[in-house]
């Protein structure tokens, strides 16, 4: 049993433990409007401590006039570290990075050693087996219209989720994804995914963004990814790429927020 606390009339908060005993702070925004017959779309937001309120407010403002904004009313679920209030959490370095038998990383900018890495499969299992069932049990949701947002290492995880568990969500927002991680090992998973797209029966959507003022390797990696996915001609896959001029690694999230919400709101 979990104890759901109402923050206000349309926002809940609760702590949820993984099977490994890790506690996550879950924040849930529910639109004021009555749910459609099929239930509300859902947007799951990684690094909820940093980004939940941003996405909540954007959805709340724009979904009031969906006909003009093209943003649907949707439930927003923030997934944060229950131990911290700020963005920086060592846990994300573990949760958001793919496992590897051979890990090659540059030094951290601050010179400190990397914390434990490689827990992406464990975190994926938490989303699939623990969090999503709780959301389904307690809220009226459209299970065929669920999206995942992640930034930086969270963007890497978002792509890893799409490549390895494409059925888990219908849409993916990868903001400034850390494709450089472990000498770009994620590219092997990407190639497998692209080669198997013809077998995909459910439509998938991918939105990738990067700021033009980010480190050059980040920009080049994102541009190269965009070229590969833009070349795909598949009725089961939609792709959008935005390079936000003048934006940096942190400002890009706000700069393209509305575009990403419109993209996942598109009916396919």
TrEMBL record:
Please spell out the taxonomic lineage of the organism that makes this protein.
Answer: Bacteria, Bacillati, Bacillota, Bacilli, Bacillales
**Which named protein is this?**
Uncharacterized protein
* Pfam family of the protein (one): Esterase
> Where on the tree of life does the source sit, at the highest rank?
Bacteria
Gene Ontology molecular functions: hydrolase activity, acting on ester bonds
Q: Which organism is it from?
A: Priestia filamentosa
State the InterPro entries in the record.
AB_hydrolase_fold, Esterase-like, Siderophore_Hydrolase_D
State the family named in the UniProt similarity comment for this chain: Belongs to the esterase D family.
Q: Which UniProt keywords apply?
A: Hydrolase
Hydrolase among keywords: yes
Acetylation listed as a keyword = no
């Amino acid at each position: 049993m979990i104890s759901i606390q109402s923050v206000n009339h349309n926002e809940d908060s609760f702590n949820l433990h993984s099977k490994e005993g890790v506690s996550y702070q879950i924040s849930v925004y529910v639109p004021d409007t009555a749910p459609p017959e099929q239930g509300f779309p859902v947007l799951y937001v990684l690094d909820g401590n940093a980004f939940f309120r941003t996405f909540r407010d954007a959805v709340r403002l724009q979904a009031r006039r969906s006909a003009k904004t093209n943003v649907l009313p949707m439930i927003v679920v923030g997934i944060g570290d229950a131990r911290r209030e700020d963005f920086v959490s060592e846990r994300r370095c573990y949760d958001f990075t793919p496992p590897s038998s051979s890990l090659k990383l540059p030094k951290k900018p601050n010179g400190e050693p990397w914390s434990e890495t490689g827990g992406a499969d464990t975190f994926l299992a938490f989303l699939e087996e623990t969090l999503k069932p709780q959301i389904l049990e307690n809220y009226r949701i459209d299970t065929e219209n669920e999206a995942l947002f992640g930034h930086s290492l969270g963007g890497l995880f978002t792509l890893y989720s799409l490549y390895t568990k494409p059925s888990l969500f219908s849409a993916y927002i990868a903001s400034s994804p850390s494709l450089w991680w472990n000498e770009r090992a994620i590219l092997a998973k990407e190639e497998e995914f692209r080669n198997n797209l013809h077998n995909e029966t459910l439509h998938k959507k991918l939105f990738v963004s990067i700021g033009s003022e980010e480190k050059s390797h980040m920009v080049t990696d994102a541009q190269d990814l965009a070229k590969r996915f833009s070349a795909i001609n598949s009725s089961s896959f939609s792709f959008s790429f935005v390079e936000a001029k003048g934006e940096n690694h942190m400002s890009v999230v706000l700069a393209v927020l509305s575009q990403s919400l419109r993209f996942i709101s598109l009916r396919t």
